[in-house]
Structure formats: C-alpha cells, structure tokens
Amino acid sequence: MEKTMEENLDLISKLQERLPPFSKLLGIKFLSASPERLTAEMLVREDLCTTPAIAHGGALMAFADTLGAFATVINLREGLTTTTIESKTNFFAPGRVGAKVIGECSALHRGRRTMAWQTRITNEEGRLIALVTQTQMVLESRTAK
Q1: Considering the domain boundaries, does residue 49 fall inside one?
Q2: Averaged over 132-142, what is the pLDDT?
Q3: Helices and strands: H and E segment counts in the chain
Q4: Burial of 108 (0-12, 13-18, 19+ CB in 10 A)
Q5: Which of 136, 132, 135, 141 is nearest to 40 (CA)?
Q6: Residue 58 lies in a domain
Q7: Is the bond preceding 21 in cis, omega lying within 30 degrees of 0?
Q8: What residues form DSSP beta bridges with 29?
Q9: Does 145 reside within a domain?
C-alpha cells in the first residue's frame, strides 16, 4: 500500500524530530522516507571539513550511518530498536565546503534480526562521493527497572 504525500511528510517530520544530538549537529535534513529507501541532505560546512576544505570522511560516514539507522527504524515493530554492527565506506570524490551532499539509503536486506543498507552519497550534480554499506542489528528495547 503506497503512502500518500501527507503521510510521507508526517513520517519525515517524525524522523526529523527524533534525530539525536550528533545528527542534528551534522545538519541532516530528511527529504523522503519509505520502508525501502530513505533520502536526506547535509550541507558541507567548514566545521565538518578537513584540510583542504573538503568534507571529513568521518562526517560523511556519520551521515550515512544516520540514514541506515533511521531506515531501519522505519521498519521496526513496536518495542524494538537498532544499532550498527558493521559499516564499510569507499570514497570516490571530495565533498567540497559549501556544497550540499545527498544521501540515498536503499535496502539490501530487511530481516527480523538484521537489516543491511547501501547509502550512495552524491553531490548536487549527481557525482558519487562515497558508497557506504552497513548492517544494523535489531534489538529488543530495554526498559528501566
């Protein structure tokens, strides 16, 4: 069953509200969301760069990690949570300061215990900057006693 535009915007809004502090610091903005695919953008600011003024690899990896985690969250049943257990990144081109990078996170596997995602990070012209493959473990939430 396909979601309406209003339902998609509501989901994006809920995801945006749930961003943890570090992801907010990165400036991640969700663009679209479905169980199979999540897209977001991030502005390459000077404080996210290395020398010369290009995005630090860790900032790009954290961007992709956030997308994979939230793509998993969209697929979780009530009472479950997730954590990253593996991540692999290949870098192909620089993300220049002042540019927006776009992350498109697509499902490779959506199982009961693990989910695997591939995130393509491109610049606004579509040039591939990085490719990240990650595995998320599905966990039962722990309640405080």
Answers
A1: yes
A2: 94
A3: 3, 8
A4: exposed
A5: 132
A6: yes
A7: no
A8: 41
A9: no
Q: DSSP label at 111?
A: -
Question: Do the beta carbons of residue 63 and residue 103 sit within 8 Å?
Answer: yes
- 71 part of a folded domain: yes
3-class SS of residue 67: helix
Q: Determine the Cα–Cα distance for residues 94 and 79; give it in Å rounded to an integer.
A: 39
Nearest-CA neighbor of 68 among 102, 42, 104, 94? Answer: 104
Q: Is the full-model pTM beyond 0.85?
A: yes
Rounded Cα distance, 13 and 86, in Å: 28
Query: What would the pLDDT profile of 49-102 be if each residue is shown by its tens digit?
Result: 998 999 999 999 999 999 999 999 999 999 999 999 999 999 999 999 999 999
Residues 102, 106, 112, 114, CA torsion sign: negative
Strand partners, 81: 139
For 15-99, list the strands marked E by DSSP. 29-33, 37-43, 49-50, 54-55, 80-91
